[in-house]
Amino acid sequence: MGKLSLFNKSTQENYNAKMAQEIQSGTAVFLRPIKSWELLSPYNYKSGKIYEGQNFINLLNSAITHKNGAFLTYKQIQELGGFVKENAKAQEIIFWSFSEKHDKETGQKMLGKDDAPIKYAFLKRFNVFNLAQTTLENLPTKSQTPKDTEQLQKAVLDFVNCNQGLISANSYNEFFAKWAAGRAYMKEDNMATSWCMAKSYLIAELVNLFICSKISADFTPIYSEYQEMWAGLFANGYLDFIKCAKIAKETSDELLTWQNLEKLSA
């Protein structure tokens, strides 16, 4: 996989600066308790796709503020016959895309091991608006709650209860965070450094938020005492918010797809 372009580096730096500011001011969504009814999964109103990873975190505050989880791009708003309200502020989202490398002189695809095309990753940026920020605000919103939420919540909490002996915790929030912190910490190369530990705790907090949103449970932050350290690490470029959110999504998916939970999709 090739290196990220300067465009992508700029995108990452912008996200880091934004997150450092939110953490410093205490407005970052994972620094405060959130009731289950507030955890409106942000989704694209036209496609129905639920936003994940860093996009979920980036849009959740807006969803909570407007009491609406639906979002649209400016073009989608126009296609639906609507307009953006005056002074409405857009939220930026990003998507990873992949492209095949080509030789600059011949234009032919560049091949790697096993004659497979060499691919590189790049980011696409989009601005979206909450449905409540548009003249389409009265359109009926769609429920983004999975049909098996109650089953999933029971299965996850049963899993927590069965493993309390392995992970001592006073609440399911603490269990999720401790479980995730252990996995994130094991993935780091420099396990002795304090910033590595802080990164692991940040990922664990995001995992906690992701899991609570999936099972419609109240979210309570566990590692908020690292607030100042996280802000400093993002501001100085020692952490990459996009990558932390990606690892957190993968880790939360790991728990929700374990064999003891697979019966829900059988």
Word description of this protein:
The structure is a single chain. With 266 residues, the protein is α+β, with helices and mostly antiparallel strands. The chain has eight helices and four strands; from the N terminus they run H-E-H-E-H-E-E-H-H-H-H-H. The protein has helices spanning 6-25, 53-66, 74-79, 149-162, 172-186, 194-214, 227-235, 241-256, and strands at residues 43-44, 70-73, 91-100, 119-130. Strands 1-2-4-3 form a four-stranded mixed sheet. Strand 1, helix 2 and strand 2 form a beta-alpha-beta unit. Helix 1 runs antiparallel to helix 7, helix 5 (172-186) crosses helix 6 (194-214) and helix 6 packs across helix 8 (241-256). The longest helix has 21 residues, at 194-214. The radius of gyration is 20 Å and the shape is globular. The protein starts with 5 loop residues before the first helix and ends in a 10-residue tail after the last helix.
